[in-house]
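re: that chain from earlier
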Amino acid sequence: MDNSLRSLIKKNNLLCSKITIKNNTKIINTPNGIYVFKKKVNKNIDDIYKYLYSRAFDYFPQKIDENEEYEVYEYIEDANTPNEQKALDIMYVLSLLHSKTTYYKEIDFDYYKKIYEDTNYNLEYLYNYYNNLINAIEKEVYMSPAHYLLARNISTIFKTISFCQKSIEKWYQNIQDKTRMRQVIVHNNIDIEHILKKDKPYLISWNKSKTDMPIYDLIVFYKKHYLDFDFIDLFHTYESRYTLLEEEKLLLFIFISIPEKLELNDTEYNLCIKISHFFDYLYKTQHLINNYNKPKH
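^ sequence. v structure.
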């Protein structure tokens, strides 16, 4: 236990009976209750908490004390909630967070132009990368299992890149006359492990929070859990309380669709797993986008 942590414990007259260490967090049991001590990361976190309170949003643990290195929070005893319910709770809390913190910011069009140019540059780079990669693979006399798996599905990569290129053009046309952008507080670290349920749902781990477009919380959560949940239902749950603008939805679907760059520098077994997961992601995302706006029967 370092001196900074020890002094904060002494200041609050806490008698430690047990310490559980989890990443940068220390959970300390005392006769008076359980407390969470976290290393300071985000210097602006107090301003964010104050703003959230001012907007009547209190779905996060209460901060009790701090010093130059640590923050002390109340401990939330998590109920034994199924992950599917936790995912719905996340959509509910995010829709509240975004609706209560929405404002419109004047934007120089160069901001939109940069998104457009950066996205196009990335897509062109990925197209050339995978085109060169498949050309090299097709010259092999005998393909390895990993290379064969990639070659069989390569058209999906090029179709996805083409979809993103067409969509970013459509997005760019849609925002030509926009002078303001919708901004919210984004948690920016959404994970199934970061939602706790007691008397109400609580979001924890706010150290990466910032002001940005609401879609970024959805992107983070989708990329972490795309295979775990039905995101058609989850995104509809979110939009039933906080509707995305057309340009936001376009950008959301573009950003979750852009293929990552596959690095083929691993064992054959690991490469097959990596490539299989890569295509699972592309197919799952394609299914989400193709079916999201279809009417339910």
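The chain has a mean pLDDT of 92.
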